[in-house]
Amino acid sequence: MKFAQPKKVPKDSLIDIKDFSGASNSLIDEARQPSKFAVESVNMMMSQDAIWKTRWGTGYYGAAHDANPDGACEFVKSDGSTELITIADGKAWSSTNGGSLTEIEGATFTAGTQCYFMQIAGYLYIANGIDSLARYDGDVLTTYTELDAPENLGASLTSGLSSGSHTYYAEVTALNEIGETVGSTEASIAVDKSRDNWTAGSDKVTWYWDAVENATRYQLYLADESGYETLLASIEAGTLSFVDDGVLDLNPYVEPPEQNTTSAPKFIAMCVSGNRIWATNNTNSKYTVYFSGTGQFIDKFSDFYGGGWINLEKGGRELPVSIKHYQSGSGEGRATALCKTPDGRGAVWQLTIATATVGDTSFSVPSATKVVGSFGTESVLGVVQTENDIAFPNRKGWFSLGPEKNYYGILRTNEKSSNIRPYWRNLNGSQISNIAAYFYDAKIFISVPQSSSGNDKIIVYDTERMNWAVDWSIGAKQFLEYTDTDNKTHLLYIPMSGTKLIEISENILNDLGTAFNQSYVSPLLPVSKIKTDILNLREAIVELGRPMGVIKFQIMGISKNGNFSTLATKTITSFGSNTGVGSDLAGDFFATSTNDNSSGGEDAWAVSFTDTPSTFTQAMTKSAIKKRAKIYALQFKVYATNADTSFSLLHLQAKGKLLQRRLPSAWAS
Hints:
By secondary structure, the protein is mainly β. The protein has two helices and 49 strands.
């Protein structure tokens, strides 16, 4: 006797997304991603407890320039007030509170060349790697006039010496208030005694040279081998000769400069560390890192003023690109140079200065240590300092430099972009050096190049939630902050084209008056761990926070025939709002919304108001799609097009009955 098998009762099933903390992810295929990730998050950003919301909008800030600006920076004047300094069409301009532009005279710049800024000791320094370093004091711009190297260096014998087989070689340099020229043409003299054996008071050589206009002093370098001169003496500007009697020791730490720094080295990257200016990225001296003196000599790069330079592995693969003040693994302040290499990996070096004394004179002696296993950068404007770390891009990804956890005294670079690695490595590699980034509101805004035209997208790394929002449909070539006279801080950027600066603000709903598209797409979520189970879908629900505008809610899925398709789309245009009469929220209402659902049937939460609220928005609004479909996997999409729209995505749900099925014959064929 056979008994009928009990009929299996379908179980209620719920697909639920309320944790969005994984944020953007392109590393894992959408069919394998956990629900907390987003397959797509165009023009969205993270908010609150890691939920998605509409990104901040943009609006023009300030007056138009004659050309696309080449750089901008806030300047704090001696009275504590601020100015916004911009460089455009080769000229410097000043403005306050987004007002009219006033030209700053005293220096010009090569138009179309990116400028870089740093403020210290009441001066704003402006460099572009081509023109002489400029300084702005709140009134005028000044530059340093480059000196020529001294000419006609010669030597003559004095007193007890005569010609012989011991040859000495010399070079002389000229100094001004900021730096030092390269050495003169080398001169030599042959004498009959080694300098170590000269008789005090009688054996002497006199070195002489022509005057250099505007020089403040001269330095004489000597050696017993051609090309290896080191410092012998520093001479007052009014004196054009020096008598060497063999008494002074040569200073082995100071050699003639490789570059003329009397108009300051033509570097790009600058920072202040240890009460010195540090600078690098000079196209004429690619391995060199410069440092200034301290105190009253902080703007002077000659060794006479306590400054100097160091080459990082000259002739090697690593070229310094950017320099920042950071810390060693044990927390001591360090000038930190980030370098590039041909393969895009780069490296990090940290620099220190010791003091050496020769005779009665002290000199600054630099040294450099490479951070083992480190990555570097090829982007000057892409390097940012966060609350605790330095973060930067290269062709491999986005990295941070910081102390190694659980190990005292060790620095490490770590990749932060693993979840978006495929996206990152699809960027235009030839434009990586132009990436611009800025740390603001615990987020790193990074403008990246998807095309050969340069930075055309912005992605955001949230340092509090440690996740990514990818991407925004705008691009920037430089970010900056400006605090106006009302103490309101503006996050600004220079666009890739156009003559005005642009502000990014959470109080702006669109981009320069034009609505932008936005979209969130969830992973493709299986309906059951058992692969043969199928969901008899009944409804899908979206819960929105403070919505306004026109929002579309869409569900997609893999049907029982194995095809992926859009199941239903709903346009939501009415939301609950505060009436403005009292403090209580409006009650629950039901009204009709457009529902693009070919199968018919719709139901939604909405409100009786027909106008989209513009001043007040309800904290939570629900809307639903009723749809009958049998599916193996489900995907949600929430998006907006062609309308000023804002919302937060609070919750997504789909409900139905889970049906147990045999293995489809098509799968086994």
